[in-house]
TrEMBL record, chain A:
Superkingdom of the source species: Bacteria
Keyword annotations from UniProtKB, A to Z: Oxidoreductase
Upper taxonomic lineage: Bacteria, Bacillati, Actinomycetota, Actinomycetes, Kitasatosporales
Protein name (record): Proline dehydrogenase
Record organism: Kitasatospora terrestris
Gene3D superfamilies: 2Fe-2S iron-sulphur cluster binding domain, sarcosine oxidase, alpha subunit, N-terminal domain (3.10.20.440)
InterPro entries listed in its UniProt record: 2Fe-2S-bd_N, 2Fe-2S_ferredoxin-like_sf
Region entry Disordered, spans: 84-104
Pfam family, one: Fer2_4
UniProtKB/TrEMBL annotation, chain B:
Taxonomy, superkingdom: Bacteria
Biological classification of the source: Bacteria, Bacillati, Actinomycetota, Actinomycetes, Kitasatosporales
InterPro entries the record matches: BFD-like_2Fe2S-bd_dom, BFD-like_2Fe2S-bd_dom_sf, FAD/NAD-bd_sf, FAD/NAD-binding_dom, Metab_Enz_Cyan_OpOx_G3PDH, Opine_Oxase_asu/HCN_bsu
Location of the BFD-like [2Fe-2S]-binding domain: 401-448
Protein name: NAD(P)/FAD-dependent oxidoreductase
Length: 104, 477
C-alpha cells in the first residue's frame, strides 16, 4: 500500500527538473507547481511579510490567498501555487511588497 | 501564461485579444467553471444541441473537487485520491467526444456584462493581448466555493494550511505539507481531507471538529433520503479508524506553536457555543495543520450585477435560484456550490438541470429528485456546522485576523469599540483588514463577526480577480 503520494497513484513522472531556490537546487517533478516542489523539498516558507517580516508560504493552494508569493525569474509577486516549475527557474524569497528594488 | 493544453482533447485555447464566438455567432451558453456542475452542464447542453463555451481558470478540467495531477506526472491511478472519480472520467470522455463544446482553459473571468448578449471578460496572461471576450446568449455560473477560515493564534505560521489547500496540493502536485498533520475546523471536508492525507502516507494524530455532530440527528428523514452520503461518511470513518486517527468532537485548535514553522498545536474542548473550556487544553506535536470551517460560495460575478442572494443556514451568502437554476437576472443561471455548498453529487444534478433549462426543455425527473434530496442534505449539513459565536474566545489581541495586511484583533476591536465602526466595511476602511491581495477572501467571515455587523452580506467587487492594467486600458474587443 502506498505510503507516499507518488506511490499511491502509481506516478511515473519523467526526470525531475531543477529550480534554484535562493541559490540552492531543488528538484521539481514535471507537472508540479513551484509551491509543490518546495513542499516536496521540505520548504514551507518563501516570503516575508511587509510589516512584521514574518515568514509565509502556501496557505490556500488554489490561488486565492496570495500568501505563496515569490520572485520567479526576477518577477515579483508570482503565485507559486499556480506557477508550473520549469527547468532552471530561479525562485527567490520575496521580502515585503516585492518591489524593494523598484524604490516605489 | 496562456495555457491551451487540455485533456478534453479539444480546446479553443488562447485567442488573440478579441471575441470568442461559435462560428461567428455568440455561443448559446457560456459556462464559467469546469468543476462537477460546469462539466455536467456543458456536456448536457451540448447533447441538447447547444453551442457551448466552457470557460475555466484552471489548466485542466475538474475544478477543485476533481483536481488531479498534470499528465506529465504520469499518475496511473489518480482515482486513489478521489471519491466519485468514475463520474468525472465519464464527463471527461463525453467532453472530449463533443464537438459542441469549446474549452477555454486558463481563462479567468474578471467581469460579466449584460446586454443583448452576455459578454464575459477574461484574462489569460500578463500581456496586454492576453485577453478574450466570450459572447453568449446565456451564462451559467459554476464557480464553486472557497474555504471559510476562522483565525487563531499562530494560524499564519508556515505549515498551517487550509484543509482544501492540503487536498489541492496533494491531488495535483502529489505533495504533503508535513509528515504529522493535525486536521481541524468544521464540516465534512475535514473527514475527506484527513482520509486522503493518511492514504498518502501522512500521520494524522487528530481530527478536531468544532461541532458535536448532534445537529445531524435533527434531520433523520433527510439523512435517510441520502444513503450515499451516509455511506461516504462511513467510509471516511472506517479509513480513520483503520489508521488510528482520533476524531475529537466539540474541540478546536486554539493555538499553533512555533517560530519559523508550526511544531505543535494546543487543542481545547468547546462548549455548545464554541467557547473554549478552560483547563481542557492539550498539546499535540505536529509539523503541519490543515484547517477550515466549511466553504463559502464564490459568486462575485453575479452579485456585482445585482443578482438576488440568500443566506444559507451557516450564515454564508449564496445565489438565489428557482427550481430550474435561474438566478434573478435574465439569462443568468447558477449551479453547484454557487447556490449553496452541497458537494459534487448535488453540483452534477444542478448542472444537468441548468442545461435543460437553458435549452428550454423539460428537466429529467431523476435529476430533479436527486437535486431536491441533496439540496435538503446540504441545508442540514450547513445547519449542523454553523460556527458558534464563542469562537472569538480563542483569539488574543495580537492574533492577526487579516493575513495580507497583518491586522490584529486589537486593531479591529479598537475600530469597533473606540471609533464606532459597526460593520465590516467601516472596519475595513479604518484598519485595512480585507484590503490586501486576497480582497478579504481569507478574513472576511472573521472581520464581519468581530465587527458585529450584519452577517452574510454579499461581497461586491467590480473585478473578480487580478487583471493586468494593460488589459483594462485596452478598448473593448
Ligand atoms: S497558496 Fe494561496 S494563492 Fe497560492
Amino acid at each position: 500500500m502506498g505510503r507516499n503520494p507518488i506511490d499511491l497513484v502509481g506516478a511515473e513522472p519523467g526526470p525531475a527538473r531543477t529550480v534554484l531556490f535562493d541559490g540552492r537546487p531543488v528538484p521539481a517533478l514535471p507537472g508540479q507547481t513551484i509551491a509543490a516542489a518546495l513542499w516536496a523539498a521540505g520548504v514551507l516558507a518563501w516570503r516575508t511579510t511587509r510589516d512584521g517580516g514574518r515568514p509565509r508560504g502556501a496557505f490556500c493552494g488554489i490561488g486565492q490567498c496570495f500568501d505563496c508569493l515569490a520572485t520567479v525569474n526576477g518577477r515579483p509577486n508570482r503565485r507559486t501555487c499556480l506557477e508550473p516549475a520549469e527547468d532552471g527557474d530561479t525562485v527567490t524569497t520575496q521580502e515585503g511588497h516585492g518591489h524593494a528594488e523598484l524604490a516605489i | 501564461m496562456p495555457n491551451s493544453r487540455s485533456e478534453s482533447g479539444r480546446s479553443a485555447g488562447a485567442h488573440p485579444a478579441g471575441a470568442a464566438r461559435a462560428g461567428g455567432r455568440p455561443y448559446d451558453l457560456a459556462v464559467v467553471g469546469a468543476g462537477p456542475a460546469g462539466l455536467a452542464a456543458a456536456v448536457t447542453a451540448a447533447d441538447l444541441g447547444l453551442r457551448v463555451a466552457l470557460v475555466d481558470a484552471g489548466a485542466r478540467i475538474g475544478g477543485q473537487y476533481y483536481r488531479h495531477p498534470a499528465p506529465e506526472l504520469g499518475a496511473a491511478r489518480p482515482e486513489r485520491l478521489h471519491h466519485g472519480w468514475s463520474a468525472f472520467a465519464g464527463l471527461r470522455e463525453r467532453l472530449a467526444a463533443h464537438a459542441g463544446v469549446d474549452h477555454l482553459a486558463g481563462h479567468h473571468v474578471w467581469a460579466a456584462e449584460r446586454g443583448p448578449v452576455w459578454r464575459l471578460h477574461t484574462t489569460h496572461g500578463p500581456e496586454a493581448a492576453d485577453r478574450t471576450t466570450v459572447e453568449a446568449g446565456a451564462v451559467l455560473l459554476a464557480t464553486g466555493a472557497y474555504e471559510r477560515q476562522l483565525p487563531f493564534p499562530g494560524w499564519t505560521l508556515p505549515g498551517v494550511v487550509t484543509a482544501g489547500g492540503a487536498q489541492a496540493m496533494l491531488k495535483s502536485g502529489l505533495v504533503l505539507p508535513g509528515r504529522r498533520i493535525v486536521v481541524a475546523g468544521s464540516g465534512p471536508l475535514l473527514l475527506a481531507a484527513a482520509s486522503s492525507l493518511v492514504h498518502a502516507g501522512a500521520e494524522v494524530p487528530a481530527v478536531v471538529e468544532a461541532t458535536d455532530y448532534l445537529g445531524y440527528a435533527k434531520g433523520l428523514p433527510t439523512l435517510l433520503g441520502n444513503p450515499a452520503k451516509l455511506v461516504e461518511g462511513a467510509r471516511h470513518g472506517a479509513t480513520l479508524l483503520r489508521h488510528r486517527v482520533r476524531l475529537r468532537r466539540s474541540g478546536a485548535v486554539v493555538e499553533a506553536h512555533g517560530t519559523d514553522r508550526v511544531t505543535a498545536v494546543t487543542v481545547a474542548r468547546l462548549d455548545g457555543d464554541w467557547r473554549p473550556v478552560p483547563g481542557t487544553e492539550r498539546r499535540i506535536a505536529c509539523d503541519a495543520v490543515a484547517v477550515g470551517h466549511g466553504l463559502v460560495p464564490q459568486i462575485e460575478l453575479a452579485t456585482e450585477l445585482g443578482a438576488a442572494t440568500r443566506t444559507t443556514p451557516d450564515g454564508a451568502v449564496a445565489l438565489a435560484v428557482d427550481a430550474e437554476q435561474r438566478t434573478s437576472l435574465d439569462g443568468l443561471f447558477a449551479a453547484g456550490e454557487t447556490c449553496g455548498v452541497g458537494g459534487a453529487d448535488l453540483a452534477l444534478a444542478e448542472g444537468v438541470l441548468a442545461a435543460y433549462a437553458v435549452a428550454g426543455r423539460p428537466a429529467p425527473r431523476g435529476a430533479v429528485v436527486r437535486r431536491d434530496r441533496r439540496r435538503a442534505f446540504a441545508e442540514l449539513m450547513a445547519a449542523a456546522h454553523v460556527p458558534g459565536a464563542g469562537w472569538t474566545g480563542w483569539l488574543t489581541p495580537e492574533t492577526d485576523v487579516c493575513r495580507c495586511e497583518e491586522v490584529p484583533v486589537a486593531r479591529i476591536r479598537e475600530a469597533v469599540e473606540e471609533l464606532g465602526a459597526g460593520d465590516a466595511r467601516t472596519v475595513k476602511l479604518l484598519t485595512r483588514a480585507g484590503m490586501g491581495w486576497c480582497q478579504g477572501r481569507m478574513c472576511g467571515a472573521a472581520v464581519a463577526c468581530l465587527s458585529g455587523g450584519p452577517e452574510g452580506r454579499a461581497d461586491s467587487r467590480p473585478l473578480s480577480c487580478p487583471v493586468p492594467l494593460a488589459q483594462l486600458a485596452e478598448p473593448p474587443a
